[in-house]
């Protein structure tokens, strides 16, 4: 086995403590404004913005640097319509028979239901897939390590990038989601992870009145 190739660390920037605190505080104040939105505008979004957001997500750390993700970007109205039909079919089954009452009770304050018009209204859908294993040009399978965790980190970075660009998003997870493979022509080694709806909020967009847990509730310092 050949020795690993390394290069100097050139991208890191160190800041003075006061500047560090300011940057951390500013980032928190900005990202705390982020809200999950279900009422979207059909206003066009430049494709280059979506490309840059995905490239930002692609910088995420991953197990053995395998980068086990595929971002399938959908803007074609006909394809979005197919996805909506399939997603709503799964959602009707979920609300009618699959979901336990406890789960339905937890969802009730959010006002969700099987109807997903935002899938067609928003200018972009980003279907995020986990590559269970890689495939070389010769058809050989390559094992991926910590694929779910890696794609979860990349998805979080994508959501933050979308917010930073001045857009809103919705994480949508109809279950099961294998219909996305069929509609988008993705191979069997890719498993749908999440459908991210991206665009501008509708002018009359409303969001649930909720609160996030405090630092004391989410962190332990030892």
The CATH homologous superfamily of the domain at 52-201: NADH Oxidase
User: Kindly state the mean pLDDT as a whole number?
Assistant: 94
Order of helices and strands: HHEHHHEEEHEHEH
The backbone outline, from C-alpha atoms, is globular
Strand content: 15-25%
| Derived structural class | alpha+beta
What's the number of helices?
Answer: 8
- End-to-end CA span: 40 Å
Quaternary structure type: single chain
Number of strands: 6
What is the CATH-assigned architecture of the domain at 52-201?
A: 3-Layer(aba) Sandwich
The CATH topology of the domain at 52-201 is given as NADH Oxidase
Question: Helical content, roughly?
Answer: 25-40%
CATH class of the domain at 52-201: Alpha Beta
Can you offer a commentary on this structure?
By secondary structure, the chain is α+β, with helices and mostly antiparallel strands. The protein has a domain at 52-201: 3-Layer(aba) Sandwich (NADH Oxidase), CATH 3.40.109.10. Helices cover 39% and strands 16% of the residues. The chain is built from eight helices and six strands, in the order ααβαααβββαβαβα. Strand 3 and strand 4 (141-143) form a beta hairpin. The longest helix has 22 residues, at 77-98.
